Amino acid sequence: MADKELQLVDHLEELRKRIIISALAFIVFFIIGFIYVDDIYKWFVRDLDVKLMVLGPSDIIWIYFMLATVVAIAGTIPVLALQIWLFVKPALKPNERRLTLSYIPALFLLFIMGLAFGYFVIFPMVLKFLVNIGAGMFVTNFTADRYFSFIMNMTIPFGVLFELPVVVMFLTSLGIINPFVLSKIRKYAYFVLVIIAVVITPPDFMSDFVVTLPLLLLYEVSINLSKLVYRKKLKKQQEEEIIEVN
C-alpha cells in the first residue's frame, strides 16, 4: 500500500513538472508574440482597404493579448506534446518511444496547416459572404477586436481539427483506441463534422461542401493511419511472443 502511494506521489510530481514546463513555454512564446505584435498586426490587415477602429484604450491591449496568445498557443504545442511524451515514456516500449516521438513535429505542422486552411480558405469566403449580404444596407466598418475575434473563430478550430490524424495515431500506439472503434463510430463522427462545417460556414451548399470534405477526409485518413499503427503493434507483439516461446 505504501509503495502504491509512493508511486502515485511520484507520478503527480512528474505531472506537475511537465505542466510547469509547458506553462513556462507558453509564457515565453507569449512574450515573444507580444514583442512582435506590431508586425503580426500589419500582416493580418495588409489586404484591408479600411483602417480598423478601436472603441476604447482597453481594446488596444486586448488586441495585443489576443495576437500574442495565438503565437503562444502555436509555439507551445510541440513543447506540450514533448512533455506528454516524456510523461508516458516510462510506460512505453523502446520501439513505441521512437514511434510516438516522431508525432511531435507532425502535431505542430498539422496545427499550422489547419490555421492556414482556416485563414486562406474559410476566412475570406465567410467574410466576403457576410459583407456582400450587407452591401447597400449598412456602412461597413470593422472594429479591431471584432475583426480579430472573427479571424480566431475561423482559424483556431481548424488548427485543432487538423491534429486529429496524429492524435489518433498516438492513442492507437498507446492502445487507448483502435481502428475498429473508429470505423464503428464513423457515422456519428461524420454527423458531428458536418454539423461543425455547417455552423462555421455561410448558409450555402458550396461553402458547406468546401469545409465538410476536408474534415471527412481527415477522419478517413485518421482511420487508415490507425490501422497502420495497429497492424505494426500487433506484428511486434507476435514477434515478441515467438521470441519468448523460443
TrEMBL record:
Record GO biological process: intracellular protein transmembrane transport; protein transport by the Tat complex
InterPro entries hit by this protein: TatC
Transmembrane stretches, start-end: 20-41, 61-88, 100-127, 147-176, 188-205, 211-230
Topology versus the membrane: Multi-pass membrane protein
Keywords (A to Z) from UniProt: Cell membrane, Membrane, Protein transport, Translocation, Transmembrane, Transmembrane helix, Transport
Annotated localization: Cell membrane; Membrane
GO terms of molecular function: proton motive force dependent protein transmembrane transporter activity
Pfam families the record matches: TatC
GO CC terms: TAT protein transport complex
Function: Part of the twin-arginine translocation (Tat) system that transports large folded proteins containing a characteristic twin-arginine motif in their signal peptide across membranes.
Family statement drawn from the similarity comment of this UniProt entry: Belongs to the TatC family.
Assembly notes: Forms a complex with TatA.
Protein name per UniProt: Sec-independent protein translocase protein TatC
